[in-house]
Amino acid sequence: MTSPRGFYDGIAERYHLLYADWEASVARQAAALDGVLRRALGPGPKDVLDCACGIGTQAVGLAALGHRVVATDVSPAAAVRASREARNRDLGLPCAAADMRALPVRSGRFDAVVCADNSLPHLLTAEDVRAALASMRRVLVPGGLLVVTTRPYDELLRDRPTATPVHASAGPGGRAVSFQLWDWHDDGEHYDLELFQLAPADGRWSTSVHRTTYWALGRDRLAGFAADAGFTDAVWHEPADTGFFQPLLTARAGWRSPTVTAAVVG
């Protein structure tokens, strides 16, 4: 299977085609996350790290709403595109390639860390998940907010689907047909994903296939990992309550002093 970096490097220039209307999704997701931030942290712009920014789906929208956002992603190609999308909108959005397990940001820098769109489950071991959450905890101010969104894995672990519905995009960003095949491992928790995307090129339809692996982290387990990393007050929120398209976990950075240091970005 391809590493997360290779997976997202490979689809960075066509990632928007996974949405029926990417621009509308940027605005809609930002509005939902802005509501989460305001309810937890109060009104006004916040210092936010999007540590799995992809091509900027959440970071660009939050920056457009006035938040002071820094964006990182394990995929250099995705981070480059996020920076380009921000420049095209005259937004200040520092972007860098970085592994969420070792964020190159000084301790206590941010009011909130966002890790959205099922990014954390790319980490396949408890050690790696704990390392990423500890890294996010370190860069938050005491009492700062963690926001993680994932697929609804408690439901998916019951059913273990092997495919997703076919999705068609025909918006201003281009035309494409996309779907996924899932191959569950024997442990019943990890699965290999194959993303098929058909898009027109030079008058013909071309097919690309991109592969990666996920860990289907249920809610209790993920909340437990957050507690191990020093977070408190973990709460899961439903899409109907937040307006975000995935289940959303919030938690607070505990008040113990971080002990890990890292280089500074942003």
From TrEMBL:
<feature type="domain" description="Methyltransferase">
    <location>
        <begin position="48"/>
        <end position="144"/>
    </location>
</feature>
<protein>
    <submittedName>
        <fullName>SAM-dependent methyltransferase</fullName>
    </submittedName>
</protein>
<keyword id="KW-0489">Methyltransferase</keyword>
<dbReference type="GO" id="GO:0032259">
    <property type="term" value="P:methylation"/>
</dbReference>
<dbReference type="InterPro" id="IPR041698">
    <property type="entry name" value="Methyltransf_25"/>
</dbReference>
<dbReference type="Pfam" id="PF13649">
    <property type="entry name" value="Methyltransf_25"/>
</dbReference>
<keyword id="KW-0808">Transferase</keyword>
<dbReference type="InterPro" id="IPR029063">
    <property type="entry name" value="SAM-dependent_MTases_sf"/>
</dbReference>
<dbReference type="GO" id="GO:0008168">
    <property type="term" value="F:methyltransferase activity"/>
</dbReference>
